[in-house]
Amino acid sequence: MQPRRAKRQTGITLIESLIALVVSALGILGIVGVQMRTLADTQTTVRRAQAIRLIDDLGERMRVNPNAMLKLASFPSGYGQKASDITPADCTATACTPSQQITHDLYQWKLTVEQTLPLGQASIFEAPGEAGVDGTNRRVLGVIISWRANEREGLATDDIDASKVRQNDGSFSAGTDTDNACPADRICHLQYLPVPARCAPYDNGAAELTAYCS
Questions:
Q1: What does the UniProt keyword field contain (predicted)?
Q2: In the chain, what are the domain boundaries?
Q3: Where are the alpha helices (DSSP H) in 72-214?
Q4: Which of 32, 69, 134, 145 is least surrounded by CB atoms within 10 angstroms?
């Protein structure tokens, strides 16, 4: 009588199963991480496109106001000034003066920024390169729109500071980091708007300059 041979075990052991499970989990986590990064980049692109459209809207409002060039000093508005801080005139019911029209436009525009972007803020400032130019000869406004990105604090700040001016040697002067710079932990979009040139200041001898529109 021949001795019975022990049957050889087949299949995988518990340790091999655990190793396969860990490798699969790491692969899935890697795929999820890539998807989350792609989603965050897509959101940033969409938000930036919205910021560009908002700045274009402000430019259109400036073009509608024929006296925008004479009232350029009325446009600057820092991050701290929200729509709720502005008391606009009702230009839809009665005709507004150029100054009232600017206040009305700023209120409507800042309200749209706050409602469109997450924690949206906007700063409008006179271009630093025109600091020494007479008020009636300034032609450019700078606009920065900032919003809160879906990132951890300290990792999402854009290095934008419009107060830096390029020197003759190509270097930049130190920025003032005020209303013409990107706040911490935010994504920003900077754009410059030329003041409409279809109306020019005209001195008719009165106490205040008027606008002559062709």
A1: Membrane, Transmembrane, Transmembrane helix
A2: 14-212
A3: 98-116
A4: 134
